[in-house]
């Protein structure tokens, strides 16, 4: 096997791609949703204002996570990043709890 | 209208600063217009046109400024690809026409 | 080595290509329908050429509600859009016996216009519902928009010499030309493409990213919508009948509260009921932000029960983003610039799909999968416009009093596109392209002319109405472009054959 060539055949490659695709789609959407919840609960101002801020941020997160999923050094790292972010944002939202009123 | 013409001129100069397009877009002005001067003037005009759009009395002027980018750049691109010998004449005619329209209005 | 490709830009280019391919055909339909929706009221006028009556906003809505009161009893809701400088009829969507119908109501009599058609509304709905039932169409549109956003960002990162290539287009050089064209279409209107994609996602946010609402409101969706538009009152029906108070004073009071700005949408909830609510919305054409002010009235008494004028920064930002996507504020040159941006995005998607095939064909004979992609390209890129042209021709040719006429027009449009796609899949692309482009040219030449088109045109010219002449001119333009396309595709094929034969002889 050549030192730096990418072997495009074979199940190892396909598994790599498939795992990253899942991270870039389902994973990215999950991270974005958790981010929306975190920003909505963090937000100052009215309830709906924070919801809007969170939703707008969420859309920016999707391509960012998708790109991470394919630039990460391997599929495990890709998913690792996704899970860490989802837990971070989701945990933040859960800890803050629903707003008053 | 003013900011549209300045925007177009700025983009034209940015295109003219590129090595491959200098000859076609600048013609006889090549000798006095160095690439560096052209780039600086081009960006300045572009920034000026954006400032005019922002400061304009209609809030939609900013949207128009962004909307004119593809039109102006597309016109320059198509001129370079399909009618390079006519492009300088068109630009001069366009600017003259625009100025005339503004004066007469 | 666990990377998909060597180097960051190669990975980005790979991701850009696949993201574009997987949903490219869906995105092409969305972009084409969206671009046409820029001129939604004008298309509706083209498709209702005899409906030329006009009246003021207030009078037209009053006439419409009078007609609906007699003909849509027991309805749970009437949703009306008032005429303005671009549309002369009242666009009404109302619940009729449990099912929602859409009609254009004459502004003087309030009765539905004789020629029953969806008009431009067909393209508007196609754009975000893709002719699929709720909510699947909107979900598909949302996923496609997320793919588009990712494709845009990866395309920007992958493009090494983005400024150098800004003014580069080298025609007649095969793959190089397709790449230059795709780049130019994408980069030159990049601010528009990013804005329209992002804002498009925002318009469907309540479906595709509701988690912020869930986090802050739980199940109480009504509270969230009340917080968003506090002036719109939502209350259950009382179950007792009552007549609606005259609507004209309500409309005038609303405009007074809007500081003189016109209203555009009027929604009447449970109109025949004692707890009916009339909500009047400020026109979206008056400023960039959409839904910036609303006033609600108690139906039977005409008393104001809710009013709001948006001043909150976050909600105002949402309104501006929404308004930028709708583009209702844009008139004159700016409207045409929106059309230009949409057309460039549509062509960028199409050229990207074609580039996928051209690039691979220059490297090696196409694999089976890529041959299928090539045929789908023909079927979608040439076939969907055939559907559009068929829709317009059907509008002119179907008899005016036909039952379910509007639905029949849509069926003809979908069937035409479907047949075109099947034809493209059945024949090799070297036949498919000239065949479909030829049919498109014929239909576009026919649309302004058939079914009395020329008399409608002369009547419009007589009235000084620019919509029909400009629309007809655009149709002829598309027909000519398609004809040129036929010649280009057939000529290149015979050039290649001549070269191959010459090489064989030498």
| Major β-sheet annotation of chain A | none
Report the principal-axis shape of chain B: globular
**Fraction in helix of chain A:** over 70%
- For the secondary structure, the number of strands of chain A is 0
Give Rg of chain B in angstroms.
14 Å
Tell me what portion of residues of chain A adopts beta-strand conformation. under 5%
The number of strands of chain B is 0
The most extensive interface between chains reads: A-C, 42 and 42 residues
Count of runs of 4 or more consecutive helical residues of chain A: 3
Percent range for β-strand residues of chain B:
under 5%
Mean pLDDT level of chain A: 91
What's the total helix number of chain B? 5
Poorly predicted regions of chain B: none
In short:
By secondary structure, chain B is an all-alpha fold.
Plain-language structure description:
The complex is a heterotrimer of chains A (101), B (105) and C (506). Helices cover 79% and strands 0% of the residues of chain A. With 101 residues, chain A is mainly alpha-helical. Chain A has a domain at 31-96. Chain B has one domain. In chain B, helix 1 packs antiparallel against helix 3, helix 1 packs across helix 4 (61-82) and helix 3 runs antiparallel to helix 4. Chain B is globular. In chain C, strand 2 (90-96) and strand 3 (99-105) form a beta hairpin. The model of chain C has no long low-confidence stretch (mean pLDDT 94). Chain C has 19 helices and 7 strands. Chain C has 506 residues and is α+β, with helices and mostly antiparallel strands. A 7-stranded antiparallel sheet of chain C has the order 3-2-1-4-5-6-7. In chain C, helix 14 (368-381) runs antiparallel to helix 16 and helix 15 (383-397) runs parallel beside helix 17 (429-446). Classes of the chains: A mainly alpha (101), B mainly alpha (105), C alpha+beta (506). Chains in contact: A-C, B-C. Chain A binds chain C through residues 4-6, 16-17, 20, 24, 29, 32-34, 36-37, 39-41, 45-56, 58-59, 62-63, 66-67, 70-71, 73-75, 93, 98-99, and chain C through 1-6, 8, 11-12, 14-15, 19, 146, 149-150, 152-154, 157, 198, 201-202, 205, 209, 211-218, 224, 227-228, 312-315, 317-318, 321.
